[in-house]
Design goal:
The chain contains six helices and eleven strands. It is of the alpha/beta class. The strands form three sheets. Strands 1, 4, 5, 6, 9, 10 and 11 form a seven-stranded mixed beta sheet that branches. A two-stranded antiparallel ribbon has the order 2-3. It has a two-stranded antiparallel ribbon with strand order 7-8. The chain is globular, with a radius of gyration of 19 Å. The chain starts with a strand and ends with a helix.
């Protein structure tokens, strides 16, 4: 039976740089809970599930309303497994259980800036375009075309042709926000998660984007979150 949409929140245990990162307290509750609540409140998904290898994370996920119908296999629980590997395994496991989906969202567990409204707007954009994938992006704060590299302990411009070009004359470039992805599930399975073109952009501002890889990132994310609540 094919349902409309599944939200898959990828929350592996064993974070090294920030211990228990996916369930660490963020502004009063586990950071994982923000992703779960955004997915549930959006009203978009027939199933909101957390993919994890940790019983502790699974317990927190279920406390906040997500399903954990199965744990990850050892193959998708090590440091070398990609997000695509995890999503493919989840979709295949649901297929074995007689469930298929038209759309899929992958939401990261450390994404407190994801909201129900953001998910609804992104979903509407993907449906409107008819493409197979939507990616939230933010512009680089400084043009990478004017970047430097270190050669023989000295700086040199990577693209010297841009030395005298004004920043505003360079093509704007964007990078992945690291928050969520939307897909047509059938296309994701066909391509095995490998999309290089035909991706719908969903633009976000610097204020609502923050990688959280270390303790400094965590503090910056909390500051940005507080600013957005004002």
């Amino acid at each position: 039976m094919k349902k409309k949409a599944v939200a898959i929140i990828t929350a592996r245990g064993g974070s090294k740089r920030i211990p228990k990162k996916n369930i660490k307290d963020f502004m009063g509750k586990p950071i994982l809970s923000y992703s779960i609540e955004a997915a549930l409140q959006s009203g978009l998904f027939d199933e909101v599930m957390v993919s994890t290898d940790s019983q502790e994370i699974a317990a927190v996920a279920e406390e906040y309303g997500a399903n954990v119908p199965f744990l990850r296999s050892p193959l998708t629980s090590d440091d070398y497994a990609t997000t695509a590997d995890v999503l493919l395994e989840v979709l295949e496991e649901y297929r074995k259980r007689g469930q298929e989906f038209e759309y899929m969202a992958c939401i990261y567990p450390t994404a407190p800036f994801v909201t129900a409204e953001k998910l609804r707007n992104a979903f509407a954009e993907l449906e409107k375009t008819g493409e197979a994938m939507l990616l939230p992006v933010v512009s680089f704060s400084y043009p990478p075309q004017r970047g430097y590299r270190i050669q023989d302990q000295r700086l040199e411009m990577k693209w010297k042709e841009n030395l005298n070009r004004r920043s505003q004359d360079l093509e704007p470039l964007y990078h992945d926000c690291g928050q969520f992805y939307l897909y047509r599930a059938e296309a994701f399975l066909e391509k095995k998660g490998q999309f290089a073109e035909g991706i719908v952009p969903f633009l976000l501002s610097d204020l609502e984007v923050q990688d959280i890889d270390n303790e400094t990132d965590w503090k910056l994310a909390e500051l940005k979150y507080q600013m957005m609540q004002q």
